[in-house]
Structure formats: structure tokens, C-alpha cells
Amino acid sequence: MKGKLYGIGVGPGDPSLLTMKAKEIIESADIVAVPVKKIGEASVALEIAKKAVDIPKSKIREIEFTMNKDKAKREECRKNAAKEVMALLDEDNTIAMLTLGDIGIYSTYAYVHKIIVDAGYDVEMVSGIPSFCAGASKAGISLAEGNEGLGVIPSLKGIDQVAKALDVFDNLVIMKVGNHVDEVCDLLKERGLFENGVVVSNVGMEDEYVGPLIADRAYGYFTTIIVKKNL
Question: Which listed residue, 54, 57, 122, 152, has the most CB atoms within 10 A of its CB?
Fold first, then answer.
């Protein structure tokens, strides 16, 4: 017998945004797998889920996903993480693996999903609310209307790629901007779009900020900028 793996998106931060399906699966799972950069580290995704679901400590299993700058070491760690999860599935466990936001948008879970699927295990992805959707709602703006095009890009692709995306799309979601806010601000000023940028930072968390771009303001890691050309 083999168990089943569920990849669970827990939403952006507010536990009330956790879906009913996610809550039910987490409650019934034998193991709640929690991706961490190193064993013993706190998990934002777990803390969100724990505010909506009673998760016994005995259920929690930390799975390491190193952030080492060496790509080979990161890939090796991901393979080991997949092997660890598959070993637990071989023991007929139902596993809920948590990830912040939506399971299909830049999630840690994606690093092991294909490996485990290709190995023949039963796997299901459970969508969560993406931070930029929750942030747009809080800002009172739509992400796309009529025949507008919407692009999603991480600033880690480089400011040149962000610039090209601005050329193509009517509206652009720039994720993982925390350490690149100044570069993005300069680009938007060059394009005359600075006033069109809306920041959604740490949505649903204690230090949440949703509002206009502010020069020289410090922003956290979970920061996204939404640019609407026709705002």
C-alpha cells in the first residue's frame, strides 16, 4: 500500500483565507510536511495553518530545502526531500505538504512534485489564494479587465526582463521584489508609471503594507508590486 501526497497552498497570511478543502485535508492527514531552509527553523506556512487547524506536534515533519547558492547542492537537497517524502508514502501515510500562497506559483512544493509523480505516487495539488490576488483585493483594484493582458514575473529574472514584460502586458505582477524595490522604482519612473505601482507586502501578516510606492521605504521579503498601465 502507498499513501497519498497533497500539496497544500495555505494562502498569503490571513488564516481565514485558508480554503475549506485545505483545512479538511490537513486535519485528516497522517503527516503535515513542512518545507524549511534548515531543520528547526520556523515556518510561515505552518504558523498560518496552525491558526486555522489544530495540528498536533507529532504530525509535523520538517523537510529541508536548502537555499545554498550552489545550484548542484540545492538540486541534491530537493532529490533527498523527494526521497524522504516517498519513504513516508511507502508506509501508507497521507501527507499534506504546506506552502505559502498558491501551490502552483513559485512554491517550494513544486521542486518535488514532478519527481514524486514520475515515480508513480498518488498526488493532488490543492490551490490556495495567491498573495497578489489577496493584495489586489485589499487595494481595491482588479488585476485584469476586458481584453487586458496580465503578466506575472519575479524580479529575480533581472530588471531587463521586467522591462520587457512591461512592454508586453497591460498589467504586470512583479513578485519577490523585496531586495529590488529601488531598481523597479527607477524603471517605473523612466516609463512614467511610478504612480501606477501598487505595493502589496506581507499580505495578511502583522506588518502588512498595501498602498502606493514610497521612496526609501523598507519592504519585507514577501513584497509584490502590481503595475496597471491604466490605473
Answer: 152
